[in-house]
Design goal:
Blueprint (H helix, E strand, L loop, with lengths): L1 H20 L1 E8 L17 H8 L2 E7 L5 H8 L5 H4 L37 H7 L3 E5 L14 E3 L5 H15 L4 E7 L6 H7 L21 H31 L4 E8 L14 H4 E7 L7 E8 L3 H9 L13 H4 L12 E5 L12 E5 L3 E6 L22 H7 L5 H12 L4 E5 L17 H17 L21
Parallel strand pairs: 1-5, 1-6, 2-8, 3-4, 3-5
Antiparallel strand pairs: 2-7, 6-7, 9-10, 10-11, 11-12
């Protein structure tokens, strides 16, 4: 009897130790949020919840997306690979999260038939599912084919804190005692900005006079008002993030959870989203959790392709050989001040949507200060996606305002014309002296050695990652595994 009691007590203690030792991951991912937070010095806004997260962890000051379009970068997060390598090189169609489970299996009728993730690539949700993790996602996947991203639970969640509170409570109820990976996607500040203000009527609009208008946009009332609406949406993001973190603290207070806050790409203005420029690729990135150095800013170049290996490293799971990113744990733990082999960071743009006129392939390499863009088909004209050009539905007034104010503000107008018609084969910028990337230094004699050095690095990266595509027809969805992956 005593032996039985001892065994029972041991089993109970073991179960408690397992519960308390569980490692979980919460990824809070925004839609079209650039590096605009009060902790990053953005004027006119307050983001106290995200600032607190940064103070309790590590804030990366030079974080980039691998592509400034939704589907390519989100697939990069869940594969650790560049878009041209994993196969989702443009935005794809995917099932809405409220559809039946069937639509997320091979029986689905709601997925992109032309572009998708290569079948021989293992995704983060597939690995976690195989290892017994509860996986959940909010807002959208925007990924194809759906069966390669097997999230167990899916909730649209809406765009207000109360909706995310209900979603998180539901997720934790469904998870039970299992370890979890939750991708809490947040809709704002994606266009249309005003839709989130309608869903959050208590949200204030920041002071228009405090808004910073970058040099590639005209400083006119229409643009300043849109910037106010965007920044108000950023504050809504902060409130939603605070709600998500509060529910985590209530549901799993004694467990080790790595929290990551980031965005898929930069904000929805011209020469930012759906472009190879820094304004479209720079994003916020914060880590907080067990083993992460607190209240630390880090200037290392990091990318969304680093999230998957970092997460797997934290969970003690094997990182697939296909992963091109690097685990950030040496930095997060304070064991190293630099990331071996990360002299440069690479990114790309191919097309935002399926319209052929939107295809304009570009490649990017940066060392943090200098920034080289190679436009692979420079003579081709480029059609901006609807949310960067048309006012209906997306409520974009900045595009038309740039056209209307061309005499008063000729620079933004010229840059817009170059964006659509004539960028040249190479562009070279100094982010230190020219953060808005206005002055192309590609012809400067004193820069030729650096341009040659960075172009060689870009060529090597393209060769080693199999990037040979220059036209839409050269991208092929690999439905069958390679003989020698």
């Amino acid at each position: 009897m005593n032996k039985l009691l001892f065994c029972a007590a041991f089993a109970f203690a073991f179960s408690l130790s397992c519960t308390h030792a569980a490692k979980n991951v919460l990824l809070i991912l925004c839609d079209d949020l650039g590096p605009h937070l009060s902790v990053l010095g953005t004027p006119g806004i307050q983001t106290p919840n995200i600032d607190k997260l940064a103070q309790g962890g590590m804030l990366f000051e030079r974080a980039y997306s691998p592509a400034a379009s939704c589907s390519p970068c989100r697939a990069s997060i869940l594969t650790g690979m560049a878009p041209h390598s994993h196969g989702i090189w443009r935005n794809v169609t995917s099932p809405e999260l409220n559809l039946p489970d069937k639509e997320f299996t091979r029986e689905s009728s709601r997925f992109d038939k032309l572009v998708g993730l290569h079948e021989d690539i293992t995704t983060l949700p597939e690995i976690l599912k195989a290892n017994g993790y509860f996986t959940a996602i909010t807002q959208k996947t925007h990924l194809s084919p759906p069966w390669k991203f097997p999230f167990e639970a899916r909730i649209s969640a809406g765009s207000a804190p109360g909706q995310y509170k209900a979603a998180m409570q539901r997720f934790f109820e469904q998870a039970g005692d299992r370890p979890f990976f939750i991708e809490a996607n947040i809709g704002p500040p994606h266009r249309p900005f005003r839709s989130y203000l309608k869903a959050n009527p208590e949200q204030r609009l920041p002071d228009a006079d405090k808004m910073h208008i970058p040099a590639y946009l005209p400083d006119v009332p229409a643009v300043r008002e849109e910037m106010r609406e965007y920044m108000a949406d950023v504050e809504i993001v902060d409130r939603i993030a605070g709600t998500v973190l509060s529910e985590l603290a209530k549901a799993r207070p004694n467990e080790e959870t790595l929290v990551i806050f980031s965005s898929d790409q930069g904000y929805g203005f011209q020469r930012a989203k759906a472009s190879p420029y820094s304004a479209g690729l720079r994003i916020p990135m914060i880590f907080q959790g067990p083993g992460v150095v607190a209240d630390k800013r880090n200037a290392t170049l990091v990318s969304l392709i680093d999230l998957m290996p970092t997460i797997l490293d934290f969970l003690g799971l094997k990182i697939p050989a296909t992963v091109q990113g690097k685990s950030l744990w040496p930095l997060l733990s304070g064991k190293s001040q630099e990331l071996p082999g990360r002299e440069y960071l690479f990114a790309e743009h191919n097309s935002h949507g399926p319209v052929p006129k939107e295809f304009y392939p570009s490649r990017v390499v940066t060392d943090g200060r200098f920034y080289l863009i190679e436009n692979l088909d420079p003579a081709k004209s480029y059609l901006l996606p609807d949310d960067l050009m048309l006012k209906p539905i997306w409520e974009n007034e900045s595009y038309q305002a740039t056209l209307d104010s061309r005499e008063q503000f000729p620079l933004p107008y010229r840059l817009l014309q170059e964006l659509e018609h004539d960028r040249g084969a190479l562009e070279f910028y100094d982010n230190q002296t020219d953060p808005d990337q206005i002055l192309n230094l590609v012809s400067r004699p004193e820069q030729q050695a650096k341009i040659k050095e960075m172009k060689q690095a870009l060529d090597t990266w393209r060769q080693t990652t199999g990037d040979i595509q220059k036209s839409v027809g050269e991208f092929q969805w690999r439905h069958e595994p390679l003989d020698n992956p």
